[in-house]
User: Fold this.
Amino acid sequence: MVYFILASEKAIYARNLVLSIASVIIAIVLCFFLIKSIIKQEKKLNEDNDVLVDTMMTKTQMRQSVNTYATKVGSFGSFAMFYISVDDFDSLKELIGGDGANNIIRGIAERLVHMLKGAANIAKFSDNTFVIFDKKEYNYDELQEMADNLLDLVNDNGSFSRRENVQITASIGVAMYPTCGVTFKELFSNLELASYIANRQGGNKYIIYYNELKEEESGNLQYFNEVREAMQKGELTLFYQPIIDVKQNQVFGFEALLRWDHPKLGIIPPAKFISVLEQSGDITYLAKWSLEQVIKMQQEIERIYPNREIKLSINLSVKQMMDDGMSDDFKKIIHKYNAKPNKIILEIAQYAMFEKMNAVRVNLLRLRDIGFEIATDGLGLDYSAVTQIETRPIDVLKLDRGFLGDITDNQMQERYVQMLVDSCAKTRRIIISEGVENKAMLEYIKKNGIDYAQGYYYSKPFPGKDVVEYIHLESWKKDATSNTARPKEPQYRVTRPGAEEEYAQEQALDNKEKEKNEVDVYNTNTSASNQENNIV
Assistant:
C-alpha cells in the first residue's frame, strides 16, 4: 500500500515538474517575442522620426498630410509629388564610409529645404530617399522644369563630396494627383515605380508616371524588390562545377557559379537577376561576398586535403571590373582571411572587349600583382586572337561551347586550336574546354591537346556542401552514364507555366551566364576609352 502511495506521489511530482518547466519555457518564449516586438516598434518609431532638418516632416506626417489634402480638394484639385532616390548609395557608403554618405544626404536635405522655402513638404523615407509633396498645380512643362531643378540640386554635391571627388546623382519619380493616384499609398507606389525605371535606365534622370506604366513595368519592380530582399535574407548562394585534369584524371578545381535559392521557384541561375544587382549597385558588394565564400570553401578543402592543389574560380562582371576600388577591396579580404590568392582564379568574360577599358585593365593588372590568376573565355579562335595571346595578362584560357559545336571535321578550327595549345605550352598557360557533355567531346579535346575539361560529362553545378564529398568519392572517375555519387543541381520546387522549359534552357548555359548588358556597357564606354592614349 505504501509503495503505491509513494509511486503516486512521485508521478504527481514528475507531472508538476514537467508543467513547471513547460510554463517557464512558455514564459521565456513570450518574453522573447514581447522584447522583439518592442525593439521593432522602437526601430520603426526612430525611422519614422528621422528628420534631418527642422522644417521637414516625418513619414507619418507626410502620409497624413497627403491623404488629408486629397480629401479636401477632391477630384477637382491637383498637386504634385516627387520621389528622389540617390543612385548607388551602397557603393557610396563603401567608397566614403557611412558617416560621409550620411553627411551628403543631410546636405541634400538642407538644399531641398532652402530651395522650396516652405512651399512644399519634404520627408526622408529611407537612407537615400526623399518624398516631396507640393500643393502647386503644375502644367507639364513646369513639372519637367521642377524635376530638372531637383536633379541639378542633387548633382550640386557640396564641399564634402567635391573634396572626395564623388559625383552624386539621383533617380526621380514624378506623379500628379489625381491622375496617378488618389491616396498616399497609390501615389507612393507609382512614384517608386517611376524612380525604379529611371534607375534601371542608368540613373541621373526623372520619369513622370503615366497609367500604362504600371501595366508595363510593375512586375519588374516587384522582381527588383525580391532580389534586394533575397540578398538581405541570405538566399543567394554559390554552386560549384568541377574542372578535371583529363591527362592526370584528377580534379583541377571548381568554378563557383552564383545561384538564387528562391523560396518558391527553387534554384535560379544569375541570368535572371544579375542585371537587377547591377542597376541597384549591389553588384559591387556581391563581388566581395563571392570572394569571401570562395576563400572559405578553399580553406575547408585545404584543411581536409592539405596535399591537394585544388583551385577555385569566380566570375566577375563588367561593372565589377570597372569599380576603381575593387583591387583594394580584394586585397583587404585576402589579408582578413590570410588566404592564398594563387589558388583563386578570377574569370572575366569577353576579355577582347574589355581590354579597351582603362579601369578594367588597371584592375586586372593590380589583381594579378596581388597573386590572383586571371581567366578569360572571350578570345575567340581566329588568327588575330591566337597570335596575340602571349602579350595578354591572363593565365587561363577557357574555350566556350562554341568550340565543341562541330567536332566532326573542322580543320581550320583544329589548326587554330593547335596554335593556341602550342602558345600556351610555351608561356605556361592552361586551356580549359567548357561544355564537355559526352565522351565524344572529351575524346575530341584530348585529340586537340587540351588537358582540362568542364561540363555535364563530369557533373552539373552542385551546392558547396557537396564539394568535399565529390572529391572524396572521386566522382569524376564514375561512368558518365551512372547517377551514383554525382551531385545534381536542384530543380524548381514548384510547377508553374513554362518553368520546366525555362530551366532546360538555363541548364544549357550552366557554365557561364552571359550578363545581358555587357555590350551596352561597352558601347557607352568605348567612346571615352578611345580617347585615352596612356592606357596601361
Observations:
- Residues 44-48, 480-507, 509-536 have pLDDT under 50 and may be disordered.
- Residues 348 and 376 are 5 Å apart (CA to CA).
- The two ends are 98 Å apart (CA to CA).
- The longest strand covers residues 250-262.
